[in-house]
């Protein structure tokens, strides 16, 4: 029986090299097969398609929302919001005997001292081509009085509709223009009165300058201070 030589002991360097080799073999990833490579590529392509379709859907939804905001219920483009209509401004100057509207100024007859209009700012209530005045038991006038191209307002004291502006009768002459002759309202010449009647709109804001009484009495002898009554 032959004797086997004793195994040779590894040196410290050889032992370290072998241990490093074993560690490298354990951490190495096993090579992927062809099927695994193809499967991974297919998953990457599917993920890109999902991202593209999601983005396209978001764009379409945003476009639909924008189109809905810009169109009305019948499919027509929705009109832009209307700008608020500015309030029409009118100025009556009782000291200068003028009425200014739409950049034009007209001569007027002012008010008798005993028949002040009693307002410094009023809003136009209505317009009447002709208006039969209510009877006034204190007036010396007889018969029915009809005024032409009448503009009215509602006073703040008693909430009565009252005369603001009217046009003189051509047969009556224009002697009162430029003088304090009105019984509680402002008069214009027939031509000017028609123009103002056509131009002024209900809701117009009228500023009245000049001497004013604080509270005119609508039951006084001033016929134009009486409440307007319109037959229905």
Walkthrough of the structure:
With 232 residues, this protein is an alpha/beta fold. 27% of the residues lie in helices and 23% in strands. The chain is built from three helices and ten strands. It has an eight-stranded mixed β-sheet with strand order 3-2-1-10-5-6-7-9, with helices on one face. Strands 4-8 form a two-stranded parallel ribbon. Strand 2 and strand 3 (104-107) form a beta hairpin. The longest helix is centred in the N-terminal third of the chain and has 37 residues, at 34-70. The radius of gyration is 48 Å and the shape is rod-shaped. The N and C termini lie far apart (148 Å).
Low-confidence parts, pLDDT < 50 over ≥5 residues?
Answer: none
Distance between the first and last residues' Cα: 148 Å
**Helix share, percent:** 25-40%
State the shape: rod-shaped
The largest sheet is:
8 strands, mixed
Lateral arrangement of strands in the main beta sheet = 3-2-1-10-5-6-7-9
Class inferred from helices and paired strands: alpha/beta
Mean pLDDT, nearest integer?
A: 79
Our count of helices gives 3
């Amino acid at each position: 029986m032959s004797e086997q030589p004793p195994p040779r002991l590894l040196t410290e360097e050889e032992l370290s090299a072998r241990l490093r080799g074993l560690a490298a073999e354990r951490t190495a990833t096993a090579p992927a097969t062809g099927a695994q490579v193809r499967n991974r590529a297919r998953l990457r392509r599917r993920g890109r398609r999902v991202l593209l379709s999601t983005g396209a859907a978001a764009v379409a939804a945003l476009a639909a929302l924008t189109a809905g905001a810009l169109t009305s219920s019948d499919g027509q483009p929705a009109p832009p919001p209307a700008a608020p209509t500015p309030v029409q401004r009118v100025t009556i100057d009782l000291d200068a005997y003028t009425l200014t509207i739409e950049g034009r100024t007209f001569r007027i007859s002012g008010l008798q001292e005993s028949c002040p209009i009693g307002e410094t700012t009023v809003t136009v209530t209505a317009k009447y081509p002709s208006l039969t005045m209510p009877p006034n038991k204190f007036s010396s006038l007889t018969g029915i009085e009809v005024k032409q191209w009448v503009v009215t307002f509602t006073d703040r004291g008693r909430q009565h509709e009252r005369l603001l502006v009217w046009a003189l009768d051509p047969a009556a002459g224009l002697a009162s223009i430029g003088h304090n002759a009105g019984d509680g309202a402002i008069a214009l010449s027939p031509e000017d009165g028609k123009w103002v009647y056509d131009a002024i709109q209900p809701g117009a804001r009228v500023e009245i300058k000049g001497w004013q009484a604080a509270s005119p009495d609508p039951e006084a002898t001033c016929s134009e201070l009486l409440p307007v009554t319109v037959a229905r």
